[in-house]
Write a structure and sequence with these properties.
- The chain is of the alpha/beta class.
- About 35% of the residues lie in helices and about 25% in strands.
- The protein is built from 15 helices and 18 strands.
- The protein has helices at about 10-20, 25-30, 60-65, 80-90, 100-115, 125-130, 135-140, 155-165, 170-180, 190, 195-210, 230-235, 300-315, 350-355, 380-385; strands at about 1-5, 35-40, 55, 70-75, 95, 120, 145-150, 220, 240-250, 255-265, 275-285, 285-295, 340, 340-345, 360, 370-375, 375-380, 390-400.
- Strand 5 (about 95), helix 5 and strand 6 (about 120) form a beta-alpha-beta unit.
- Helix 2 (about 25-30) packs parallel to helix 13 (about 300-315) and helix 8 crosses helix 9 (about 170-180).
Amino acid sequence: MIKVAILGYGTVGSGVYQIIKENSKVVEKKSGEAIDIKYVLDLREFPGDPVEDVLVHDVNVILEDPEVEVVIEVMGGVNPAYDFVKSALEKGKSVCTSNKELVAAHGAELIKIAKSHNRNFLFEAAVGGGIPIIRPLNMHITADVIDEIEGILNGTTNYILSKMEKEGADFESTLKVAQDLGYAERNPEADVEGYDAVRKIAILASLAKEKTVNYEEVYTEGISKITADDFKYAKVMNRRIKLLGKCKNEDDGIMASVSPRLISVEHPLYHISGVTNGVLVRGNMVGDLVFVGSGAGKLPTASAVVSDVVDSVRHLNIATTVRWEDEHLEIADFSKSKKQFFVRATDDKATVEKVFGNVEYIDAGLDNEVGFITPVISEADFEKKAEELSGLITRIRIED
């Protein structure tokens, strides 16, 4: 019997507890060992909850117990999670986590510590919730050069954009609905401004390139400026607006970004709606692989965590092949990235054509403005030309 400990008894932590208890026979069959939750760490009390029997408030009880083979960190945030996880690994315990902030900031370091003790630091749930994406990148797509990864990596923003498109609602009212339904936090900044998605694409990029991508160096733009009128134009273009995290090999190097994009009906992620997430991996030999599923939620995320627990138990004294070195990966200057832009402005067509040349106009029936698609142009050149317009309303990047 393998003893494990859970750090944090919130939404995901309670889900992990539930799955290990209710699916104990399945988990034992898959892992080859019975798994027993010896401790759950939390500062709070849970009167009447069965977790009371194993609840502790001091992490050192767990760290100093040699019987605990696997630590499950589902607290969230970097502090104190980083200190707890690092200490657990140094004590020779494997760690499984859903903590994207922790993985994005310290992933390479924690993997190195785990390997030095023939243990594992696993984080399947940190990127796509219940979607299996980390393990395929590490173990299955290994004969390819990965040319591109892009994904709808945040269920909250995808829900908001999907609802705005379907109902013609504005951003603020849709955000309020998302909050009332529990899809968005009271402070939604991390989701709607792209900070959640940028950590996830940095993790995926680091695994794909086997070096460390600093998420703070990745261009990040959220959805808070998207309006109901933008969707009227998108409908005319037969496109949808999605918040995409991207890492792509381009002529100027490896480009990485998070931003709203207009994607066509032919795009593999076009039909991903609601709180569902989707990740596209493009290999130079295998072509396009698409992973779709629930990107968040108590049980889908907890299921991914428990899959890592099973893997850790299967490889109790063997470090599995998570390749991610702490060498810094240089990201190319995003201002050099080239693409088409959809633009709304109050300038007349003569001014638009003087600034941007041959454009494609889009008529969505809105008065006192023009919508148009620019030729392929770099980010830097677009910004320079946009300054020549007196009435720029918005611009959204167009995804090939």
